[in-house]
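Lab manual, section 2.4: Encoding a predicted structure.

Procedure: take the sequence of the chain (313 residues), apply the prediction step described in section 2.3, and record the output as structure tokens. A sample record is shown.
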Amino acid sequence: MDYRQLGRTQLSVSPICIGAWQLSGPVFFDGQPDGHPDPGRENVLRLIRQLGDEGINCIDTAEQYGNAESERRVGEALQGHRDVWVISTKFGYRVGPNNQREDDSSAPTIMPSLEGSLRRLRTDYIDVYLYHCPPALDDLVNGRAVLELARQQGKIRYYGISTNNLALLQAMQERDMLDVVQYASNILQPASEIRELLLAHDIGAQVRGVMAQGRLSGKYFAGAPVWREDDNRSNRFKDHDYSRYAVFASAVPEGYTMAQVAIRWALDQPGNHTICMGAKNLEDYRTAIKAAEMPPLDTEILSKLMEAQEALK
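Recorded output:
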């Protein structure tokens, strides 16, 4: 597997990154589970170690995921192999009383969150430490001071944010607060302005959302997904017609799946370095790894993707 330098950092990362949200058990939003069943601790530990053997060397988690269970599992899985992994985790969103989400990334919360993550991850440093919920603009200076102190102490190597808020990214860039950014980008919603900002300043880019909540996975071209009643997506997408995205089927070349086209498209965009996948099994990750090893999409495929996009308007 070819590794990529993560922007101006000194980190070399695999093009596919393990997204550990779905590996933690349910995450609650305002008391409602996100719909991802717990794959089981032993299964998760095995999967992470298997993916390390496959060549993946980066993993992304957060203190919120599974009420910190994700970090605990990642820390256990990487024991004895910490030096070959790039770990990113996030702070600001956390699970509070009655499974209500707390949103607070203010400067005084950063160091306590960091200490908790270090303990759960069983490490003395975090490679990439990201704001998970947006900080207030008037708190950026104080937040930067705390993050720089943590870097001086050797507790973090690089920091940034997970967001698609362009104005906030610009404000943080002006204050030299962006080593790495995690943002959502896919064929349907490229977020080109964000990518151009990151590319212009050689900022590391972790891409998420490449499947656009399953629209680009190809799994639902023939029929709508079915979610449990307590799954928050059952309300968010209950009136959404997933079958309309079957127009992309004609753009999938022989030997590819739709998911691989979506992954390859994201990796082909200049400035994108690694993709955070949310898969829960080895087979789906192997499909993603294969996509990363495929050649860039040619102009004919790109033209067909654009035609499909136009058909959706």
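Check your result against the sample. The mean pLDDT is 93.
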